[in-house]
Amino acid sequence: MQDYKQEFIEFMVESQVLKFGEFTLKSGRKSPFFMNAGAYVTGDQLHRLGLYYAQAIHEAFGDDFDVVFGPAYKGIPLSVITAMGYNELYGKQVKYCSNRKEAKDHGEGGNLLGYVLQDGDRVVMVEDVTTSGKSIEETYPLITAAANITVCGLMVSLNRMEVGKGGVKCALDEVSDLHGFPTASIVDMTEVTEYLHNRECQGRVVIDDACKAAIDAYYEQYGAK
User: Fold this and answer.
1) DSSP of 46-97
2) Is the pLDDT score of 108 beyond 70?
3) What is the pLDDT of residues 65-82, one digit of tens each?
4) Residues with a known catalytic role
């Protein structure tokens, strides 16, 4: 596993974004882990997060893109910090773009904020985590209608690796199949579990044998094929 992936796993635990225990998800599933990207709140955390996204995009999709797009609302700061991180790490100027939940009818108007998409733009989309693919289903038609663009890929921070709406593949794979562009994550839960199992992180073992057994049982029931 690459060093930045290991660092990112520890960063999620350190930032209390990724927690282990017993949680009831919005779907009603009882999960032994929970991710809340809203816990990234400090300038240092956001700076580091942008660098991790940039590294993962560079590795998964390369540098041939012009725009980072983040679906509202959580994707808005992600698109900004990723564009900044890419400039810092690779010296490449990329623009940020996001959508508005409600179209603006004054000033510059429209459904988008930040960069105005142009024909020929190559776009990488960023999200915190894709559970159902709903936000992409809403925003993909919006940005492809705005200009004749190419979506080069979707990057999320964590692939939960659970079955999506179709009940077989994970949501990231469903998005890829539906829209025809590649998807990737900074890390997935297999990597997280393997790295943290019986390893001390932030002064404690966060995935002991009991937690590992609970995670394994969860994926026996809800894991994607």
Assistant:
1) HHHHHHHHHHHHHHHH-S---EEEE-TTTHHHHHHHHHHHHHHHH----EEE
2) no
3) 999 999 998 999 999 999
4) 104, 106
